[in-house]
Amino acid sequence: MTTALSNSSYNNNHSAGFTLIELMVTIAVLAIIVSIAAPNVSTQLANQRVKATTTTLENALKEAKAESLIRRQEIEVSIDDDDYKIEIEDNSSTSIASYTYNTKSVIDGDDVEFKPNKTADEETLTICDSNTNASPRLVKVSKLGQVSVSIGGSCS
């Protein structure tokens, strides 16, 4: 009887919980996992920015092509890297549309002009990110005004 009593009083004196060493080991393991995952997350975010800028540019080029056919005049797409804008303008420099893109993205290439006879200036534009680990993308405009997107290119 005394043995059962002494065991139950022993259990009541100790509280359930984690020791300081167990908590420190858990925090150390979490820190290691976060340090491994963090670079991958920043690269994924950079790739997403490049993809979003590419889509914006592709849409602007396709709109300019359509406007050139509808208005039966030359339409120019210009890129302003200082203000992070893509401008669509007609012959008289009247703005038709304006798109903004991410400030961490860079579009490398010349202006593109679409003509009413369904042709365009042949141009390849490269989209990069300030994070150099991001995969650049290419937007190509053919002489027939076809717009295509691919992964590739190099950033300087």
Q: Would you kindly provide a written description of the structure presented here, covering whatever features stand out?
A:
The longest helix has 52 residues, at 20-71. This protein has one domain (21-151): minor pseudopilin epsh fold, CATH 3.55.40. A hairpin with a 5-residue loop joins strand 7 (137-141) and strand 8 (147-151). By secondary structure, it is of the alpha+beta class. The strands form two sheets. Strands 3-2-1-5 form a four-stranded antiparallel sheet, covered by helices on one side. Strands 4-6-7-8 form a four-stranded antiparallel sheet, with helices on one face. It has helices at 2-13, 20-71; strands at residues 75-80, 85-89, 95-100, 105-108, 112-114, 123-129, 137-141, 147-151.
Helix content: 40-55%
The total of helices stands at 2
For the biggest sheet, the summary is: 4 strands, antiparallel
Find the structural class using helix and strand composition.
Answer: alpha+beta
Main β-sheet, spatial strand arrangement: 3-2-1-5
Q: Alpha-carbon distance between the termini?
A: 83 Å
- The unreliable regions are none
Q: What is the CA-atom radius of gyration, in angstroms?
A: 29 Å
